[in-house]
Structure formats: C-alpha cells, structure tokens
Amino acid sequence: MEVKGKRAHVLAVPCPAQGHVRQLMKLSTQIANRGIKITFVNTEYIHAKVLAAMSEEDKRQSHIELMSIPDGLTPEDDRNDGFKLIESLRRTMSRNLTDLIEKINCQDKDEKISHVIADTTIGWILDIPKKMGAEPVAFQPFAAAGMVLQLHIPKLIEEGNLDINGFMMENELIKVSHDLPPWRRNELIWSIPSDLKGQKILFECILTAGQSIHHASWILCNTFYELESSACNLIPNFLSIGPLLRSDTSKSCASGGSFWVEDTTCLSWLDEKPDGSVIYVSFGSIAVLSQDQLNELALALELSGRPFLWVVRSNLVNGSQAEYPNGFRERVAERAKIVEWAPQEEVLAHSSVWCFLSHCGWNSTMEGLSLGVPFLCWPYFADQFHNENYICDMWKIGLRLNHDENGLRSRHEIITKIEMLFSDRSVKANALKLKEKAQRSVSESGSSFKNFETFIGHLKK
Ligand code: UDP
C-alpha cells in the first residue's frame, strides 16, 4: 500500500511465546536497520520480561519502539497455561490492537501505521490492518511445509482425512505434495500427544489463522528457497527471507526478544574445550521432561565421557526445578556446564561444539542448520516432529533418538546415537553443505536476500 509522502511505519505483532518473539524481533531489527520505523507490540507480561532481560546497551542501541497491550488475563492467571492464554487473546487482542493503532495514528499523522506484520499463529489479527488503512503482512514462524499443511486443512477435512477437530481419520499418513515428507499421526503441526484437549484448541487456532492468512498481501517466512523449494512454490505471495540470524542483524538489540538473561559464561567455558568436542543440549523454551527422563539423559551425558553444555530451565522438569541423579553434578563438574539460558546462536557458532541435542523447534532447527551443527533429535510437540523428519530423512543432518517400550529415551539409546554422530562424518559433511547454502541465500544476490530487498522496496514505495 502506498502511503505517499509519508514514512512507512510497521507494526510487528508476535504470538507471546519465546520462539515467536525472538524470530520476529530479528526480522524487525533487519527492517529497522534499513531506516524503516518499526514498533514491536508484545503483551504486557512478555514486554516486562523482554525489558528485564535486555542489557542497558541493547536498550540504548535499539532502533525499535517497544510497546505493549494487555493479554486479557487477570494478574493471578497462569500465563504458562498456553491454551487459556490463546483463548483470552482470541477474545481480546483485536480490540486492544485496534485501540493501540488508533492511539499511534492520532499521535503523529505523518507516521501512521502503514503495515502490520502479524505472526500467523495469531493470524486472526490480519483482519484489522485494512480497516485501519494499513497493509496486512503475515509472518510464518514455522517451516513453509507447516503452512502448506495449514492451508490444506479445509481440503483434508472435506476429503475425510481429518475430522473437524483435526484428528486423523483412517489414513496413517497425510501427504500434501510428492516432494514433502508426509505427516504421520501425532506429527501434525497441532499435535500434542500428551494433551488431546489442548490439541483440539491448537487445531482450531491454526485453522482460523489459516483462513485469515488470505488477507495478507505477503507471507514472510524464516526459511530459504533452497531448503524448502517445493513448499515455497505451493504458497501464493510467499517470500522466504531466512535464515534469520542474530549475527546478521548487526549488534543492535543483541539480546532483543529474549525472555531470560543469557548466561554468557558458557562462551568462555567453550573457549577452553577442544574443537568439535562438545555436545550442546537444549529443549527451547516450552518443552518439559519427566524426572525419569531427565535422569536418563543426565546419566547418558555422564557415561558419554564427553564435555557437554546443557540448558536446564528452572521449569524443565514438568514445570519444576530439575533434580539430578545422586552425585551427578560432582562427577561431571570437570567437563560439564549447566546454564539456565544460553546465548544459543553464539554457542552453535562456536568451534568447540560438535552436535546439538535439540527438541527441533523451528528456530533451533534454522539456527543449527545455518551454523553447520548436526542434530540429535528429541521432538516434543507441534511442528517439531516434522522438523525431525526434515533433519533426519530429507537433509540427513541428524539422527533420531527413539523411545523404548516405556516411552523413555534410554541412556543406552542416547549414548549410542551420540557416538554415531561423533564417528559418522557424513552427517557433519551434509550439515556443512547446508550451512553453505543457508549462508548463500542471505548473501548478496541470494534468494532470501533478494526477497528481503523486494519487501523493503515495497515498504519504501
Ligand atoms: N534459546 C536461547 N537460549 C537457550 C535456549 C534457546 O537463546 O538457552 C533461543 C533459541 O536460540 C531459539 C529460541 O530460544 O531462538 C527457541 O525457539 P525454538 O523455536 O527453537 O523453540 P521453542 O522455544 O519455541 O519451543
């Protein structure tokens, strides 16, 4: 949309979850670095977390205006209850956002909101911009493949592959294109095997958001064409602009979007380790483990005899503090570093890191593959299973960690796969090839570079 004689002013609105805020913040920083005014809107709760985790230097250097809207919950409500939060956002977010846009537009008539970039997870807000004289742009924080599936939902229901709650009917596989790995039961992007009620709510959300995506004039996605060309080709108005990496957003707003303070002591710890020796373990911001599972993992890391850096959030064990096996901390003290939150991209870029034991969230997947690090896959929910299929079957840059008959990833399984990953150089070689492709896509004249320039040109029109 042309806003003649006026400067573009972009409003970026993420879903209030760590992986979503981080990605959109990286994109927003890249847009701001091109001289475009950008206002980033979090919910009040997340806004406070982001500010608390930002360094003073980041606050000074940031070119992004940070604002907030209420999430519709009371102060006593549990914001870790993602489904309660989403239901509240569906009730209240459109109104709150409309009020905010009106307020901004009244403050400065020359800098009215011209474009709204909305996370597709909260895609229903894409209805708002046009009513406010702005252009809607969607931002897809998952793989393009996930969006292909999302856009196919009505057809899959019509053809009897899915019921109206998103459960698979007869078929064991859902295939939406010959070139894409199929989705098995429990691998759908709304899959939460441990919580079927939650799964139903997530499905409704994804279905509704999918319908609103058609309002967007562009769909931006943190992927690159060479990685997912067949999925990219299936989505209209699609611009792959990834990988979105912090190192590419310059120093401005280095910690921007983190909910936790990053423990940078792990970087000097990594400096002391030999090249290609360290196992990096992180489950992102949401995944949780049972205490039994944590014990198996801890013992596997100990028995591997290798140095490891492990991110253990204070809520990793079913929402509570982890308890380690007896004497574990003392026995591994010489070669282990445990932190609550790491500067993940810097860790993955460090020469001493060999592999990434990951829950395969899309950000972690993009970061690991763009930095040439092989994966040990430990998916937990939603799109993470399909990302695992991409990693292990299509790109061949990682190995699966399978469950045993008790539903646990046993220490034996973990050690076996760690050793396979250290000895099988072909996986590392594939990872390095993919890293090169990723870097090429964001270098001058690369596919993502060109798409981003197209988008910036459009904003500046
Ligand atoms: N992350 C981080 N430090 C950590 C663990 C994770 O900075 O110790 C970042 C990671 O780099 C990624 C995001 O948190 O950008 C997690 O997003 P992802 O999509 O991988 O998983 P989610 O948290 O959404 O499940």
Automatic annotation (TrEMBL):
SUPFAM superfamilies: UDP-Glycosyltransferase/glycogen phosphorylase. Residues 9-45 form the Glycosyltransferase N-terminal domain. Keywords: Transferase. InterPro entries: Glyco_transf_N, UDP_glucos_trans. Gene3D superfamilies: Glycogen Phosphorylase B (3.40.50.2000). One of its GO terms (molecular function) is quercetin 3-O-glucosyltransferase activity. Pfam families: Glyco_transf_N, UDPGT. Belongs to the UDP-glycosyltransferase family. This is Glycosyltransferase N-terminal domain-containing protein. It comes from Fraxinus pennsylvanica.
